[in-house]
Structures are given as structure tokens and as C-alpha cells.
Amino acid sequence: MAADADEGDYFVREIERNNGCTLKVKQCYLGDVGCVVWDAAIVLAKYLETKQFYDPSSGVNVWAGKRVVELGAGTGVVGLMAATLGAAVTVTDLEDLQTLLRVNIQENQALISSGSVTAKVLKWGEDVSDFRPPPHYVLMADCIYYEQSIVPLVESLKLLSGPETCIICCYEQRTEGVNPKVERQFFELLQQNFDCEEIPSDKQDPEFSSPDIHILLIRRKV
């Protein structure tokens, strides 16, 4: 997609923050999985501003000044939410999604005051020296769907994570086709090096949650 892609190639999805600001995320009409805002991304974005992380009335802001990397960012909605909450975010995806990421960063820049967001290419399984020191958080929404990518994805999680890194993974459980097998392979491989804990629905955004969308906290085994 050319950097000056025609406006007609996009439509805008709006995600309202609890403070009334609205993130506006462009997605393509045509194209592959990366250019659509999946429901899991919105569930994860809204989870980032639940009271346990962000509660201005009591002075809680877990995101302030934290280094965050989003994997398979697609439109960048999750990383953009973290940036508006004060995190220093790097949204990552393949080369052909960089234009869309940059468009969305530009579109939402006015909502980002204390945080920051930049887009970088990261191909799963490849060198992560650009992302040192290890981020405080790695965010990923709906990245587990493609059998060939499971091994490189887990490799990236191992390469990126330090002992303090918390990975927040949100995915929609899909029952058709190869999806159950792919999910099973991902978790079997992941659990060799990481511990996973599922977030109960009462800790998620009351409006933006769904029984078939799961949020996991994943940390390196000690």
C-alpha cells in the first residue's frame, strides 16, 4: 500500500476511551488479516484501561513510563491505547503493514501526551536487538491462528522477554478447521518456558468482553 493510499481504501473504526476521548483506527477494505481490527484487539485495548491498571481518581497508572512492545499489531489499536495511557510503545508487524500503522499513529497523535508510539518491522523469530532492554510488557491480540508462525512467535516471546516482562495475550477461541490444533500447539510450546494465568471476566472491561475471547498473563518461568 502506498504511503499516500487513497482515503477510499480505508474505513474508520472508533474505540472510545473511558475518559471520553476516541481512538480512530483506519482499517483497509481489502487485504489480509493484519489490516482489520479484530474483536480480540478491542477487548485487549479496553482491558488496558481497567481500574487495576489505570484509575486516575486514585492515582493508579501502571502504564506511565513503561516500555511496551506490541506483536502482530496490524492496525496498532492495542499499542495506541497503551500510548494514550502513558506507555512508551513500539508497535510491530511485517513490512507491508507499516504504512497502515504510521497512518493510525498520525491520526491519533493528538491523544498521546505523556506516552509515545513508534512503528517498527519485526518478523517473528528474527533478531530483537532493536527492542532492548526487554520491555516491561509485550501485548498481542489474535496472533495465534497460523500454524507456520507458532514456532517463530514463541521464539520471539523468548527473545523479547526478560525476567520482569509480562506478556498479555488476548485471543478469540475458534473451533473450526485447524484453529484448535494451532492453539494447542502454541500453548504446549509456550509452557516449556512460560507460566500462563487466565484473567477472569470480572477483571475485564464489563462491556468489552466475551466468553470466547480469552486474556492471559504470561511470564517466564523462574
Protein model, in words:
By secondary structure, this protein is of the alpha/beta class. Helix content is about 25%, strand content about 25%. It is built from five helices and eleven strands; from the N terminus they run ββαβββαβαββαβαββ. The strands form three sheets. It has a seven-stranded mixed beta sheet, with helices on both faces. A two-stranded antiparallel ribbon has the order 1-2. A two-stranded antiparallel ribbon has the order 3-4. Strand 3 and strand 4 form a beta hairpin. The longest helix has 12 residues.
Tell me, rounded to a whole number, the average pLDDT: 92
Strand % is: 25-35%
Structural class: alpha/beta
Number of helices: 5
Distance between the termini: 43 Å
**Most strands sheet:** 7 strands, mixed
Helix content: 10-25%
Task: Catalogue the unreliable spans.
Answer: 1-5
Rg estimate, integer Å:
16 Å
